Amino acid sequence: MRVEILCTGDEILTGKTINTNYSHIARRLGEVGLDVVWGTVVGDDRDSLLAAFRLAGGRADAVIVNGGLGPTVDDLSQEVAAEACGVPLVLSEYWLQRMTESYARRGRVMPANNKKQAMLPEGAEFIDNPIGTACGFAVTIGKARFLFTPGVPREMRRMLDEQVIPRLLALGGITGVSRLKRFHSFGIGESRADEMLAGIPGLAIDGEIKLGFQAHFPQLETKLAVRGADEADLVARLAPVEAEVRRRLGNFVVAEDEQTLEGEVMHKLLALGQTLAVAETFTGGNIAARLAPLAGAETVFKRGVVTRTLPTEGASAQAAIEAAAALRRESRASQALAVLVQLDDGPDRPDFGATIAIGIADASGTVSRQARMVGGRDWVRVGATELALDCLRRHLFGLPVDERIDFERR
Amino acid sequence: MRVEILCTGDEILTGKTINTNYSHIARRLGEVGLDVVWGTVVGDDRDSLLAAFRLAGGRADAVIVNGGLGPTVDDLSQEVAAEACGVPLVLSEYWLQRMTESYARRGRVMPANNKKQAMLPEGAEFIDNPIGTACGFAVTIGKARFLFTPGVPREMRRMLDEQVIPRLLALGGITGVSRLKRFHSFGIGESRADEMLAGIPGLAIDGEIKLGFQAHFPQLETKLAVRGADEADLVARLAPVEAEVRRRLGNFVVAEDEQTLEGEVMHKLLALGQTLAVAETFTGGNIAARLAPLAGAETVFKRGVVTRTLPTEGASAQAAIEAAAALRRESRASQALAVLVQLDDGPDRPDFGATIAIGIADASGTVSRQARMVGGRDWVRVGATELALDCLRRHLFGLPVDERIDFERR
């Protein structure tokens, strides 16, 4: 099935707003096995919209239209859809009542111009928006089914998952349920992860369980998209593959699904009833900034110290251990993490590097990790932050802290 | 002149990469007075590319194509352009030699597949890429001039400004020079800034000097796009308007052009020969993280402290002053900044708020600023970080620290 995405709106067309809606829709469709073959961006302009509808209607089987469902005069999607279908706009009494009630519940009167949002092309299929005033709808233009969604990301995302994707799967004769299992790792690049997962039965880019990667620098997300006849069938297919992926990626997996690296560290500290103090040099508050806002940090996070001054011996393992031990004594935290970064001399360049020394002290003693990273000042900062959090995670979970990662040079 | 943007590549089409190249190109064109009227995304697919070239060639006067100029087999732009023009690909001896020399200078031999990048449609206009192996080119397809640019953002951006935009301006019969003057402000929203700048002669969204805004949460960027016959003419037009904008936005302007808020704070501290210590609560290292990486921070930034514990009286002005004074005594820094954030009780919601107290201590005494912000935990954190840095800037530059901003509630 050929699916197209058509994004409307001057903010998108002029580049003022980056088109993250497009990439979200395309990614989600790919994850459920639907392929996007064409993307179009047009502004809030009647002629362009009509031309774009007709072109896409001649090419595609299904078109997701995003935007142009608002209450103002430059929101043209319903009007132009009606024109393309050769039908009038008619009032959806149902949606008008839903909007009126929704305003009433918040003690407000619905502004008159919202009525426009209940005007749909005659014969259109209604698509519910449970969290906004812009309802969706579907019509057929040319040989394609057009599904209209609002531009507000939160509303679009929910409607895409709950309303649009099920309709597209039905259109394409794809039945059953789907799930996306995600692993977040640190320390391995996409090509190494691909190698580590080679040969798992049923798992491939075009396999029964679709394998995908997305780099969220410096983390890598490994995604398994799976379909099943029903929930039991899906679990039966996914479970062995999921377990094998987890085993192969091993200690590099820092979190799964909605979890985060810093969240896992925080949960473990809470579970152990321990507290934490952090001393940072070049990472300048970035480690503290990841931990301090989390729920539970009030209890766990005792102290963060940011300084630019390295010990005289630089970023050695010994210096990091001593810094961690001193921080633990001063702060009286259960765990003390010290991160020393010694930058190379010279100007910032793509091959600019640094030596990173990480020390952790707790009641049982101290551990250290030293690594050399190159890639410019910003990458060193980001890499050192992630490495430090990951060392702490590994230490707390009883894993080796000195496993070689792809991003270091020796 | 009708300009279109055509982005190619599976990574963009499938949403794996967010299409920031599109928004950059569209914004830059808008800033020099060129209007983008249509955007297209297609994958690394011969049929789609050819169809997209023909459609755009029938609609537009000029088309910027981005991507598909790499050395691998899925890079199809030159091939399909030649097909659309009905001409063969021919080797550019000039570009082949440039590439070979560039590899030789780095002591490397050019891989054989790079030769593909010197194959251009016969009769194509060469467009230089001074920093990469993917040269650009221009051909005419249908009624439109097509300008091909590489997908690597750094290369595309430089070629767009130096090579593509001048050609487009010439095509559109637009002569002279252009400049974009930028003001970065904190504390005013887009609609208020628009009001503050109302009535300046020659300055409007469609005026002689084009006014534009872009929100970089929580900062606002105010942009003046100006054209002139030559540099002297441009300066003569811009100078009085620029001065008036600076006067009207007044103390809210935190930086201009390439400057940043934290950079201005750092420069001032360096110029004064002063040092700084920062104590943060809920902003958890974010303030330190903005300052610590800057050039000169080695000298200026004495100490950052992150804690979750508020003084017993909460985020009062008095508590912030006392915390700043204590920090100054302990750290012996010239300037001490203390930021106390007292969150409301209850779950995170869009109207979740906090009271923020900022204290600054230096040799001349102490100042404080208290504000109430709502908008959820993340917004409070971002807002408090910006407010604290802005208070420090205002204090260092002798400006009032307690000017009301749009983002606070009273």
Folded structure, characterized:
The structure is a homodimer of 410-residue chains. With 410 residues, chain A is α/β, with parallel strands linked by helices. Chain A has 3 domains: 2-171, 3-Layer(aba) Sandwich (Molybdenum Cofactor Biosythetic Enzyme, Chain A), CATH 3.40.980.10; 177-256, Alpha-Beta Plaits; 261-396, Alpha-Beta Complex (Maf protein), CATH 3.90.950. Chain A is built from 13 helices and 18 strands. A 6-stranded mixed sheet of chain A has the order 2-1-3-8-7-6, sandwiched between helices. In chain A, strands 10-11-12-9-13 form a 5-stranded mixed sheet. In chain A, strands 15-14-16-17-18 form a 5-stranded mixed sheet. Chain A is elongated. The mean pLDDT of chain A is 92. Chains A and B meet through helix 2, strand 2, helix 3, helix 10 and strand 15 of A and helix 2, strand 2, helix 3, helix 10 and strand 15 of B.
- Give start-end ranges of low-pLDDT stretches of chain A: none
Tell me the helix content of chain A. Answer: 25-40%
Distance separating the two termini of chain A = 49 Å
Strand order of the largest sheet of chain A: 2-1-3-8-7-6
- The assembly state of the depicted protein chains is homodimer
Characterize the overall form of chain A. elongated
CATH topology of the largest domain in chain A, anyone? Molybdenum Cofactor Biosythetic Enzyme, Chain A
Q: Beta-strand percentage of chain A?
A: 25-35%
What is the annotated CATH architecture of the largest domain in chain A?
3-Layer(aba) Sandwich
CATH superfamily of the largest domain in chain A: MoaB/Mog-like domain
What structural category do the secondary elements of chain A indicate? alpha/beta
The total count of strands of chain A amounts to 18
Task: Summarize the biggest pleated sheet of chain A.
Answer: 6 strands, mixed
